[in-house]
Input
Amino acid sequence: MIMAKLTALVTIAAIFYTFVLSARVGALRVKTGVAAPATSGDPIFERAFRVHMNTVEQLVMFLPVLWLSVQVIGDAWTGLIGVVWLAGRIFYASGYMKNPTKRGPGMLITLSATLALVIVTIVGIVRGFLAM
Amino acid sequence: MIMAKLTALVTIAAIFYTFVLSARVGALRVKTGVAAPATSGDPIFERAFRVHMNTVEQLVMFLPVLWLSVQVIGDAWTGLIGVVWLAGRIFYASGYMKNPTKRGPGMLITLSATLALVIVTIVGIVRGFLAM
Amino acid sequence: MIMAKLTALVTIAAIFYTFVLSARVGALRVKTGVAAPATSGDPIFERAFRVHMNTVEQLVMFLPVLWLSVQVIGDAWTGLIGVVWLAGRIFYASGYMKNPTKRGPGMLITLSATLALVIVTIVGIVRGFLAM
Output
């Protein structure tokens, strides 16, 4: 049984979304003729490739603080911040695919959610020290 | 003491294998003359580089669901699915190095193992909701 | 409340440092004119890009064994090894930015810290088996 249900659900959703972005890269290899191991040669492929890679980079910062935060503010609030992160990622991907210059707002939402989780974790660490 | 011994062992093995793939990239830099920070210029180097990078991408999806699954189906079953993931990665790397078009089967095994862990996690989340 | 305070602190620091490296990549896009989605075209940008990417690759190997080790040797020792890892990363980045050939020593420190955590984890797994 998993107790932190919403946090686990957000984790699954974030991983699934990352997979969807990687599957799009694979599909665009076929469509644009950018054969592996190349990672450039077509502007749309390159956008999709960077969107996926950037999401992986964000995911590895997000998941650890997500699971530290759940110990501080519980499952519901942590899950809520996770949903904001995911919305930021979807917004980022959609903006980037239209035009790489439009990737800013989604990135800001993503980073704000991660920052919120970092602050929550720091609060939990401080509380841990105070309880010593 | 670590209770989820097999899951921890698979985690160590997956991380070690990822390290081996990165060490090969480093060795091929010397052998092929593709000096850092370049990441292209020799077909064999490029394959090794992509194999490592792709394994990092898969690892960040795999480890979170691996450690969620152990809470649902226990250490032995989780470890077993982890071994399948690892076998898929080794198969993927070996196929890709021979010919990038031969990377499909190993990738499918990897993704099947990750998908199995995702399904197990979802079962655990549903059980968590039912126990409320 | 977070019990493994120092380990959590190192986790936050490692994630924050990875973010700082990605922010530098973003700033160098503006300064050097390497517009997204391109990832090459200027030697300094390419170094910063590779430093960030390599740190992400190291982070995904580091964090899992960090949190397995805390179950074996406790928070203080785990946090200490984490600080070594972080120092290795800062040393690596600073060497690489001066000259890519100077990235070796920092990388060795990073890998030594990760290896120490892997050994600690294996000790914990063996203890788990012995306690069965």
User: Anything to note?
Assistant: Residues 43-98 of chain C form the longest helix (56 residues).
